[in-house]
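Sequence dictates fold. Below is an illustrative record:

_____
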Amino acid sequence: MRNFKQEEETLNARIQADFSDWQAHLLKAELYYDLLYNNDFDFEIFVGQDKLEDELEREDGSTIIDDAIEKVRELNPDSIELCLLQAKIGMFRGGMDSKEIKAFIDHALAKEPQNVDALLTLAKWYYYEENDYDKAFDLCSKVQQIGPMNPVAYYLRTDLSVYIDMDKYTGEMEERDYQRLIQFKPTHMGPYYNRAVFFSCIPQYEDALADVDRCIELDNGHYKESEPYILRASINRELGNYDEALNDIAKAIEAIVNDSNALRCQICIEKGEIYDAMGDSVNAMNAFKEAVKYDQEYYATHYDMDKREAQALGDTEALEKYNRRISLANGATPYDFYVAAIEKAEEKSLPAKEKEPAKNEGHYNKNEREDRPSFWSRLKSKFFG
């Protein structure tokens, strides 16, 4: 583990000795970026990171980063490292136009076309900003050809696997990549989580369960993630371990941070699917109904606002990006799950259904909207066609 305070003191001493030392200012900006934003696979966390993040409010840290960057601009404005740091901050902190981020990366690559950090930053730009998964994947593969094993490139490639055609990225290649990552950093939870998803789709549920158990064990409460519990609930449901699955749902709810409606919606859908598998149509219907509520508060508003803004501006590029995101959105809408549960309940002659929740025009009308494959169906189609 890294020692933040020690590194900060060393850099402050360098700056005090020579205020024109642009590299020291850059390293200080990178130090704060690492603490506040860096989530790369090879990133080594700091001793007492949770406490440090609490002590250093994000706004104060961002101000220190901005001040250090401004000083580097004055001293060495053409620095490749500066361009790439600005691009990374723009992607992960927000507040920067996507084209401006790309300009920083292009400037770095114009100077050094084979710069691995620049190529990986460009891969992230295609992945996170443009949803161009094939280009992001190809850049990761290019980095792997340039030099020795780069764990960030391997990790990004496995993270992109769900979007890549199996002819291009076979199951054997993907499994080898996971093994390399685990060998490189056996205490990182990420490869275990992603490989558990991979095993779930083959399907090899026992192997998937072993990996997600290891992922949760490695979490140690530091990341406080809900997703591993949601995944384990899904795997236990497939294995018929319904009590364990519902217990995982409870843990997923406990692990929610920032009161995320997106996660609550996902948890409710999984809970409904568990009850449906148990033959409990009433509880399934109630869980899907709750998911509709969170969907109306989060997904529907998010996508609808994006589309309306793009239409108002006449921005065809933004509309295309919106349509790509819609086509990859997580599943048939929660409303569809709810309607299916009502129909199943009616078939069993259960009590009359309650009044259906209002449909969000243009988003929930099942007969008017485009079909959107679920996350799991996208994964399974990768393997089964």
Summary: Residues 259-372 form one domain. The two ends are 44 Å apart (CA to CA).
